[in-house]
């Protein structure tokens, strides 16, 4: 019997391509906060067991080696990014004022592990709307100035400003309190990020700015604008897509193709360059396929979900390791989509932006989620098919198969690697599972 159980567990682990790599001691109560980022293939975590607990900071290697760091001075700070250099690691954090934000850093020597607040600081006017680490290990900040039509890129290394660029925009939507999300390249878009009417998505040489559901003053119709901003050349290009008045649309982009979930119940794919519609399919037909439809941990039958398409309010498009295009669409009900008013603490304001910090809160945002994932072939025939395995699906299948009652779940994901942090109900251990695509079974 033991052999049978062992074989079953091994098979389940291989099927979901996951591995338990670390367990961290915590209080039995649910975590107060847990933020993190993937650097290289390692995981950085900054977590607190309770509100009054000190912040614990750890690095976890892909093999599960845990290195604890005592970084006094980070308590209560909004961590922005952790960037290792040759001699030390910079832990960037932000502090706020009404019209600007200040970037500071705590440095940790990589030999003797001494930490101290770095002498320099950088005061940046405007509002932070996105950040990422580039190939040169430089911190890139995207911000907008109040009352302007410009998006600014600011490049920082060791708190020295290495360069700035400004890009003209056709809309002031980034200056409004409408929910926004920044989606870094190679990351996995969450359902909460996909809800945002304004999305900034990073690609190789810049970002796409997607603004859904604006009112066109000339025609009164609903308008979606997609702006491609090239950081290298400085060029911008904007495409406008129109719909009938008071229609809500949801947009994503992948490989120069614009994916739109229209209020008329159609999924359409259009070329960014030509505007031609290359694929369209009724959501009613899509939801009648055999693909799984998931509501958190429960899998519904095809009959139970036949009419769920009417409530779809988000769209996610990505690729799995085989190059197959996966489209995830569904409904996320959330109590509040509006950014906090001006003057609130920066940490609260950034949390409403879904993901402006490189180091972001990993816990699921509140609300109920219904969704399903399908695959669309790209061989020129564009047909809906059963979804091929992606990181997101492997995590869903693992959680559904284990049937564990979690009091905390956090996710830090890239397209080919994910770290999932779980605390079972009543447990004093925070378990870290690694999911990857290198050892997956197709």
Topology:
Blueprint: H1 2-16, E1 18-25, E2 33-39, E3 42-48, E4 56-60, E5 66-69, E6 78-84, E7 88-96, E8 100-109, E9 115-117, E10 122-125, E11 127-133, E12 139-144, E13 150-157, E14 160-168, E15 180-183, H2 191-195, E16 198-203, E17 206-215, E18 222-230, E19 236-243, E20 250-254, E21 257-261, E22 266-271, E23 277-282, H3 283-286, E24 293-295, E25 298-300, E26 314-319, E27 325-333, H4 346-352, E28 360-361, E29 368-376, E30 384-386, H5 391-402, E31 406-413, E32 417-424, E33 429-436
Parallel strand pairs: 15-16
Antiparallel strand pairs: 1-33, 2-3, 2-28, 3-4, 4-5, 6-7, 7-8, 8-9, 8-10, 11-12, 12-13, 13-14, 16-17, 17-18, 18-19, 20-21, 21-22, 22-23, 24-25, 24-29, 26-27, 27-29, 29-30, 31-32, 32-33
Helix pairs in contact: 1-5
Keywords: Signal
Signal peptide: 1-17
How would you characterize the overall build of this protein?
37% of the residues are buried. Strands 24, 25, 26, 27, 29 and 30 form a 6-stranded antiparallel beta sheet that branches. Strands 5-4-3-2-28 form a 5-stranded antiparallel beta sheet, with no helix packed on it. 10% of the residues lie in helices and 48% in strands. A hairpin with a 5-residue loop joins β12 and β13 (150-157). α1 runs antiparallel to α5. The chain has a single domain, classed as Methylamine Dehydrogenase, Chain H (7 Propeller). The chain is built from 5 helices and 33 strands. It has helices at 2-16, 191-195, 283-286, 346-352, 391-402; strands at residues 18-25, 33-39, 42-48, 56-60, 66-69, 78-84, 88-96, 100-109, 115-117, 122-125, 127-133, 139-144, 150-157, 160-168, 180-183, 198-203, 206-215, 222-230, 236-243, 250-254, 257-261, 266-271, 277-282, 293-295, 298-300, 314-319, 325-333, 360-361, 368-376, 384-386, 406-413, 417-424, 429-436. By secondary structure, the chain is mostly beta strands.
């Amino acid at each position: 019997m033991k052999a049978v159980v062992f074989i079953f567990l091994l098979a389940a682990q291989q099927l979901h391509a996951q591995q338990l790599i670390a367990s961290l001691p915590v209080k039995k109560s649910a975590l107060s906060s847990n933020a993190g980022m993937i650097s290289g293939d390692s995981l950085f975590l900054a977590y607190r067991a309770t509100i009054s607990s000190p912040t614990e900071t750890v690095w976890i290697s892909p093999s599960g080696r845990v290195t604890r760091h005592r970084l006094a001075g980070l308590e209560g700070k909004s961590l922005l990014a952790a960037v290792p250099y040759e001699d030390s690691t910079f832990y960037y954090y932000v502090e706020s004022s009404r019209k600007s934000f200040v970037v500071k850093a705590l440095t940790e020597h990589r030999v003797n592990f001494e930490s101290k607040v770095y002498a320099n600081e950088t005061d940046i006017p405007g509002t932070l709307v996105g950040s990422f680490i580039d190939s040169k290990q430089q911190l890139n900040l995207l911000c907008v100035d109040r009352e302007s039509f410009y998006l600014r890129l600011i490049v920082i290394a060791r708190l020295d400003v290495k360069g700035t660029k400004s890009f003209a925009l056709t809309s002031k939507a980034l200056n409004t309190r409408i929910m926004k999300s920044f989606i870094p390249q190679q990351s996995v878009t969450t359902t909460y990020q996909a809800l945002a009417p304004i999305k900034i998505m990073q690609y190789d040489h810049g970002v796409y700015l997607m603004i859904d559901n604006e009112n066109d003053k000339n025609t009164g119709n609903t308008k979606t604008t997609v702006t491609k901003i090239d950081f290298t050349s400085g060029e911008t290009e904007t495409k406008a897509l129109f719909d009938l008045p008071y229609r809500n649309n949801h947009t994503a982009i992948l490989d120069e193709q614009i994916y739109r979930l229209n209020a008329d119940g159609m999924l359409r794919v259009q070329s960014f360059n030509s505007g031609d519609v290359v694929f369209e399919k009724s959501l009613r037909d899509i939801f009648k396929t055999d693909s799984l439809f998931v509501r958190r941990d429960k899998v519904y039958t095809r009959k139970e979900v036949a009419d769920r398409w009417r409530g779809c309010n988000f769209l996610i498009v990505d690729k799995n390791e085989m190059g197959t295009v996966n489209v995830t669409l569904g409904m996320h009900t959330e109590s509040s989509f509006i950014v906090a008013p001006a003057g609130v603490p920066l940490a609260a304001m950034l949390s409403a932006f879904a993901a402006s910090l490189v180091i972001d809160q990993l816990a699921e945002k509140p609300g109920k989620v219904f969704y399903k994932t399908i695959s669309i072939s790209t061989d020129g025939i564009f047909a809906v098919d059963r979804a091929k395995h992606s990181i997101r699906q492997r995590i869903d299948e693992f959680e559904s198969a284990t049937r564990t009652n979690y009091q905390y779940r956090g996710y830090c994901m890239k397209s080919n690697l994910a770290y999932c942090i779980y605390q079972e109900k009543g447990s004093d251990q925070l378990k870290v599972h690694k999911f990857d695509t290198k050892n997956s079974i197709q």
